[in-house]
């Protein structure tokens, strides 16, 4: 996180307003995402621990196949919520959506949501992945946590993940338009699956499925219930992906009011210290320590060069987002 007391004048203009998110007590789902390597797990963990101070129960859920929550907390997490050490109301779990897809057939036997998915629909390409998202959201809601913080995969995977309810909604909508013309097809496909059902039964189930999907979709588009926190670092590729992410979230009508700039470097000036230390050495010591001092000067120069680059992109972030976003 940016420490305001330690940053340059430009960096001071980037305010740490993340407390506004913590104070928004209507939020149920907080998604944290951004380019790989920007520190999403660190930020999502920080948000979750802050929320745990004011909320009754908080779930921190990783959907990134390369899970890092266990490393962040020094505690092993699995696909079931586990209480985080040192907390009485913060739980964490690491879940790969592929696990849900693999388990869809078994879940359909016991889960009320998936029982409403006819076999005929499971034959549609990509439907299992879309259903896995809705199943995940339904499952999280059924556990009755006050708020769930999602530590998501890198940007491309996250955008696909968030668009799944919309994809599923369109599939169901298209199927319902065919209700009056699908009689023979229903019989054909039903004969290819385990369950036999009439056209009326099939479309009743499709309509119920559509209602459940619509509920999830509407909740995701409600800024009182759902928000997305973009995490970036002040470098070109990260800022570029952040802009892409924000635009795609806007197209999907998902609220995004928070941008957290991570890994901000502080300008340091140690040239005089290096010179003083060098001048205090004997000639013999200088001979031995020369490679070390050269490395120190090299890394000092590289560090401050990076600070200069970061200042440019911090200014870009300020210019692009200061008016419409809380930036921390």
TrEMBL record:
SUPFAM superfamilies xrefs: P-loop containing nucleoside triphosphate hydrolases
GO biological process, one term: tail-anchored membrane protein insertion into ER membrane
Residue ranges constituting the ArsA/GET3 Anion-transporting ATPase-like domain according to the UniProt record: 28-271
MF GO annotations: ATP binding; ATP hydrolysis activity
Gene Ontology, cellular component aspect: GET complex
One Pfam family from the record: ArsA_ATPase
Family of this protein: Belongs to the arsA ATPase family.
Record PANTHER family: ARSENICAL PUMP-DRIVING ATPASE ARSENITE-TRANSLOCATING ATPASE, ATPASE GET3
Protein name: Arsenical pump-driving protein
């Amino acid at each position: 996180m940016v420490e305001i007391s330690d940053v340059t004048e430009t960096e001071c203009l980037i305010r740490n307003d993340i407390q506004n998110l913590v104070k928004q007590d209507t939020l149920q789902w907080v998604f944290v995402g951004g380019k790989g390597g920007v520190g999403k797990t660190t930020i999502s963990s920080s948000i979750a621990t802050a929320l745990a101070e004011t909320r009754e129960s908080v779930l921190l859920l990783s959907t990134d196949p390369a899970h890092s929550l266990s490393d962040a907390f020094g505690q092993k997490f699995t696909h079931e919520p586990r209480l985080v050490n040192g907390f009485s109301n913060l739980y964490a779990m690491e879940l790969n959506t592929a696990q849900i897809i693999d388990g869809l057939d078994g879940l359909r036997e016991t889960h009320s949501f998936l029982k409403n998915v006819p076999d005929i629909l499971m034959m549609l390409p990509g439907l299992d992945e879309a259903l896995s998202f809705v199943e995940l959201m339904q499952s999280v809601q059924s556990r009755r946590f006050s708020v769930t913080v999602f530590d998501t995969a890198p940007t491309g995977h996250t955008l696909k993940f968030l668009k799944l309810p919309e994809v599923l909604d369109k599939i169901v909508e298209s199927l319902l338009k065919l209700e009056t013309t699908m009689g023979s097809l229903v019989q054909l496909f039903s004969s290819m699956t385990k369950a036999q059902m009439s056209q009326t039964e099939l479309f009743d189930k499709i309509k119920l499925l559509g209602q459940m999907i619509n509920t999830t979709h509407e909740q995701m588009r409600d800024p009182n219930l759902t928000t997305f926190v973009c995490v970036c670092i002040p470098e070109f590729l990260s800022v570029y992906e952040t802009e892409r992410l924000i635009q795609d979230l806007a197209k999907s009508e998902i609220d995004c009011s928070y941008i957290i700039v991570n890994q901000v470097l502080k300008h340091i000036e140690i040239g005089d210290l290096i010179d003083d230390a060098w001048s205090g050495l004997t000639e013999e010591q200088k001979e031995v320590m020369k490679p070390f001092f050269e490395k120190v000067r090299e890394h000092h120069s590289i560090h401050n060069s990076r600070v200069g680059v970061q200042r440019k992109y911090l200014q870009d972030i300020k210019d692009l987002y200061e008016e419409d976003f809380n930036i921390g």
